[in-house]
Amino acid sequence: MSRRHKILSAEPVAAQIESLTHEGRGIAYVNGKTTFIDGTLPGEKVLFQYRRRRARYDEGKLTEIINPSPERVDAPCEHYDQCGGCSLQHTTPQFQIERKQAVLLEQLQYIGRVQPEQILPPLTGPVWGYRRKARLSVKYVEKKGRVLVGFLEKYSPYVADLKSCVVLHPSAGLILTDLQTVISQLSVHRKIPQIEIAVTDKTTALVFRHIMPLTESDLAILKKFEDKHKVDIYLQPAGLESVTPLSPGNATALSYCLPEYNVEIFFEPTDFIQNNYEINVAMVNFALELLEPGGSDHVLDLFCGLGNFSLPLARKSARVTGVDGDTGLIERARSNSRHNKVTNIEFHIANLADQDLQASFLQHEYLKVLLDPPRAGAPEIIYNMDFKGVKRIVYVSCNPATLARDAGILVEKKGFHLQKAGVMDMFPHTSHIESIALFVR
Q1: 73 exposed, middle or buried (CB, 10 Å; 0-12, 13-18, 19+)?
Q2: Hey, do 2-72 and 133-199+204-251 end up sharing a CATH topology, with the first three levels equal?
Q3: Taken in order 59, 429, 82, 48, is the CA torsion positive or negative?
Q4: CA dihedral defined by 327, 329, 333, 334, rounded to 10 degrees?
Q5: Of the residues 8, 83, 113, 355, which has the maximum number of CB atoms within 10 A of its CB?
Q6: What share of the chain has pLDDT > 90, as a percent?
Q7: What value does the mean pLDDT take over residues 172-199?
Q8: What is the pLDDT confidence band of residue 8, given thresholds at 50, 70 and 90?
């Protein structure tokens, strides 16, 4: 007990911040030992308290800034010190995007052993109220005697006690307190672990996951909340297939538009869509600009999802083939193609992470390929394809480390050249890095 008390002494310690981790934590060297301190910036001299001490590194909590960085700003969120949803609100958006670009280039060099011939200008957009898709944790806390709704605390399994969220779209971010209140009124308030949010220009959908049946009184309470806040509530008593609207026939269909291509994409409230609508529109335009689809091209869209890239590509190409492993997403992609009267497109269901994948779409030749994989990247399908005849590849990534690894494969094993790469500010104020790269023969 006394040894632990000594190690985690509350006495403040001085440190000079040398750099940042990829997650945005300040790095200092205290008595020769690496120490990570949240909320700090390179060049700052700070005081901190030890939060955790390990054999190879320590972790600290910022207590005072002695010499602030010129890039430091006041975080507008009152919950910033507690909530784990954001890690970079204490610095300028310009510094954030420059830092993310530096991380991307570093990963490409050290993991993929490649560097782009040209660095693309970053895609930027709104930095507040931008997030339209999120999953919030819900927990009844006995000690507080009430329900909490929000993201998890920093480096903790506990739900942060939030009143509002400045990065969520206002239709969701400003009703967190009301959500806490309405859930506390339900008979199953201890049995609702999460709420999934999906926001469009027409409505806000809230999916209540509940692991015990709702009573008639519960349904009436939720209906009153739905009407008051003009949202659409969905109920999820089991898996994703169990999601149904609280008010069948009245729920507004969820969709978003890509106006430059006259495309409207419909989706279910638990489907994957890009959380930042403005950046997504710009990203689709940018990706097609880089890919240069033409009237005679056959384009392959891997990890196509709902058709976010496939349908715009079909407006510019002779033929498009979209492939994804999610049956539900492919069904909705086909429905979206019919809704938009797109006839020069076909969709296939295939596990693109299968190292021994045998599929008919692999037998066709494509002139151009678009890749938009999950965080794990796309090494299996890249190795599987011979890319015969492929002249250009655009790779959209949500993880610079796996992009870098796959870039190395494309360059070393498949004969491509990394011509351009850059970042897109899909998640301002977080350490998440969205990027895009162009590979050519």
Answers
A1: middle
A2: yes
A3: positive
A4: 30
A5: 83
A6: 93
A7: 97
A8: low
